[in-house]
TrEMBL record:
Protein name: histidine kinase
SUPFAM superfamilies xref list: ATPase domain of HSP90 chaperone/DNA topoisomerase II/histidine kinase (SSF55874)
Organism of provenance: Dethiobacter alkaliphilus AHT 1
Enzyme Commission number(s) from the entry: 2.7.13.3
Histidine kinase/HSP90-like ATPase domain segment(s): 368-461
Keywords from the UniProt entry: Kinase, Membrane, Transferase, Transmembrane, Transmembrane helix, Two-component regulatory system
Pfam families xrefs: HATPase_c, HisKA_3
Length: 468
C-alpha cells in the first residue's frame, strides 16, 4: 500500500475517534431521555474502536514493526468486529420495535459477534495464525457484508424513523438533523460494508474499491474519511439541539408561574373587592329588612338579599374552580411524584418513580385522560399498600413511539394469592373503568416477584395533524 495512504488513515481514524469521544461525553446528558442520547455510548464505542483499527493499518503502512505484521492484522480484525457490533447495537437500540421483541432484537449484535469470533479463531487454529491474511474471504463476507453493512443500514433506518417521530411532535428542525445523520450512515454502510477489495466471488468481483477508483478518480479511503468527518459534524449539531429541551422546560415553568400568579391576583381582587362589596350590600339590605317595611318593599328587599347571596356563592364557586390544578400531560410527572411522596409518608412502602418522558418528544394527551392516568396510579398504589403485603413498588412512565406507557410494579404476594378480596377487585374494576375513559388498555398480571399493572394510553392527534 502506498505511503501516501498513511495520512489518509491518520485522518480517517482521528475523525472516528473524535466522534467516539464526543458521543461518550454526551451519553449522560441530563436534559434528555431521548433514545438517541441513551444509545450514544454504543456509537462512542464504535467510533473509538473503529478509529483505532484504522490507526493499526497506519502502523502497518509505516512499516514500524514488520515482524508483528500478522499480530497487527489480527488486532485490526478484532477491533473492526467490535466496532461493527457496537454500530449495530446503536442501530437496534434506536429502532421503535414492540416491547416484547426489544430484548431479543438487542441481542442480535452480540450473537453475530460471537459467531464471527468463534469461527475466526477456529479457522486460525486449524490453518495457522496467518490464515485470514492469506485468505480474507471469511472476514470480507462476515465483517463487511454481515456486520458493517447491516450496522450502518440499521442505524440509518432507525435515525430516519426517529426523524418521523420528531416531525409528528412538530419538531421539524430536529427531524432534519436526524435525517441528515441517517443519510450519511446509509453512505457509510455502502462505503465500509459493501465496497470491499476485489475478490473472485460475487459481489466483491463487481462492487469493489477498484471500481470506485475508476468511477470517481480517488481512493475510497478519502470518501471514508469525509464520511467520518461528516458524522462528527452532524452528531455535534444534533446533540446541541437537545439543549432546547432544557430551555423549553424553563419556559413552561415560567408560563405556569405567570398563570398561577395571575389567577391568584384575580382571586384576591374578586375576594377583596367584589365579594366584600356584595357582602356589604347584603348587610345593608338585611338592615333595611329588619325595620319591617310593608308590602312590596319588603318582598323586594328579600329578593335583593337572596340575589346577593346567590351571587356571592357563585363567585366563590368560580374562585374554587379556577384555583384547582388541572393535571396537564406536562404536569403528570410532578403530580405523580407528589402522590408517591404522600404514600411513602403514610405507609412503610418504598416507592420509586422512574420517568422516561422527555418534554422534547412528549405527545398530545388531554387533561381528562391525564387525570384518569393519575387516579389509576393512585388506585394501583393504594391496592399495593392495602392488599399486596409489599415492601417496595416502582412506578414507571415511558414515552413510546405512539403511546404513553405506565407501569406499577410491586414485590408483594401477587393477585392469585389475594383471592376473596372484594375491595381489591372493586379497585381493579375502577381502574379498568378509568382506562376505558382514557381510551387506553389496562393489564394486571403476576410477575416473578409480585404484581405488575400496565397501562397504555395512545397519544392523541392534535388539531393541526387532523387538518393534514
Amino acid at each position: 500500500m502506498p505511503k501516501e495512504y498513511f495520512f489518509l488513515y491518520l485522518i480517517y481514524g482521528s475523525a472516528f475517534i473524535n466522534m467516539g469521544i464526543f458521543a461518550l461525553q454526551k451519553k449522560d446528558v441530563e436534559v434528555s431521555n431521548l433514545a438517541l442520547v441513551r444509545s450514544l455510548k454504543y456509537l462512542g464505542f464504535f467510533g473509538i474502536t473503529h478509529g483505532i483499527s484504522e490507526w493499526v493499518t497506519m502502523l502497518v503502512i509505516a512499516d514500524l514493526y514488520p515482524q508483528q505484521y500478522v499480530l497487527f492484522f489480527i488486532l485490526k480484525q478484532l477491533l473492526k468486529a467490535v466496532s461493527f457490533a457496537c454500530l449495530l447495537r446503536f442501530g437496534v437500540s434506536l429502532l421503535p420495535v414492540p416491547d416484547k421483541y426489544r430484548k431479543p432484537v438487542k441481542l442480535i449484535p452480540m450473537v453475530v459477534f460471537i459467531f464471527w469470533l468463534t469461527f475466526f479463531m477456529l479457522l486460525m487454529l486449524r490453518h495457522g495464525w496467518d490464515y485470514h491474511l492469506i485468505d480474507p474471504r471469511y472476514n470480507i463476507v462476515w465483517l463487511r457484508y454481515f456486520m458493517g453493512f447491516p450496522g450502518g443500514l440499521v442505524s440509518g433506518i432507525a435515525l430516519y424513523l426517529n426523524a418521523g417521530w420528531m416531525e409528528e411532535r412538530k419538531l421539524g428542525h430536529i427531524a432534519k438533523k436526524y435525517k441528515s445523520l441517517a443519510y450519511i450512515f446509509f453512505v457509510y454502510s455502502v462505503l465500509d460494508g459493501a465496497i470491499v477489495r476485489e475478490m473472485a466471488f460475487f459481489p466483491a468481483s463487481i462492487i469493489n474499491d477498484t471500481l470506485f477508483l475508476s468511477i470517481f478518480g480517488f481512493p475510497i479511503q478519502i470518501a471514508k474519511a469525509a464520511v467520518g468527518i461528516g458524522i462528527n459534524i452532524l452528531l455535534i449539531r444534533l446533540v446541541q439541539t437537545f439543549g432546547w429541551e432544557q430551555k423549553e422546560k424553563l419556559h413552561q415553568l415560567q408560563k405556569k408561574k405567570i398563570a398561577y400568579e395571575e389567577r391568584r391576583k384575580l382571586g384576591m381582587e374578586i375576594h377583596d373587592g367584589i365579594i366584600q362589596g356584595l357582602y356589604a350590600a347584603g348587610l345593608k339590605a338585611e338592615y333595611l329588612n329588619r325595620n319591617k317595611p310593608e308590602g312590596k318593599q319588603g318582598e323586594i328587599l328579600q329578593d335583593i338579599k337572596r340575589d346577593l347571596n346567590n351571587t356571592i356563592d357563585k363567585t366563590r364557586e368560580f374562585l374554587a374552580a379556577s384555583s384547582l390544578e388541572v393535571i396537564e400531560v406536562e404536569d403528570l410527572i410532578d403530580s405523580l411524584q407528589q402522590l408517591a411522596d404522600r404514600f411513602k409518608m403514610s405507609s412503610s412502602l418504598n416507592i420509586d418513580l422512574q420517568c422516561r418522558v422527555p418534554l422534547l418528544t412528549l405527545g398530545q394527551l388531554s387533561p381528562e385522560k391525564t387525570t384518569q392516568i393519575y387516579y389509576i396510579v393512585q388506585e394501583a398504589l393504594s391496592n399495593v399498600i392495602k392488599h399486596a403485603q409489599a415492601t417496595s413498588a416502582e412506578v414507571v412512565l415511558e414515552a413510546k413511539y405512539d403511546y404513553l406507557l405506565v407501569q406499577v410494579v410491586d414485590d408483594g404476594i401477587g393477585i392469585e394469592n389475594d383471592k376473596g378480596n372484594d375491595a381489591g377487585h372493586m379497585g381493579l374494576e375502577a381502574m379498568e373503568h378509568r382506562a376505558k375513559k382514557a381510551e387506553g388498555t389496562l393489564k394486571v398480571e403476576n410477575t416473578k416477584k409480585g404484581t405488575m399493572m400496565e397501562l397504555q394510553v395512545p397519544w392523541e392527534v392534535s388539531a393541526d395533524e387532523k387538518e393534514h
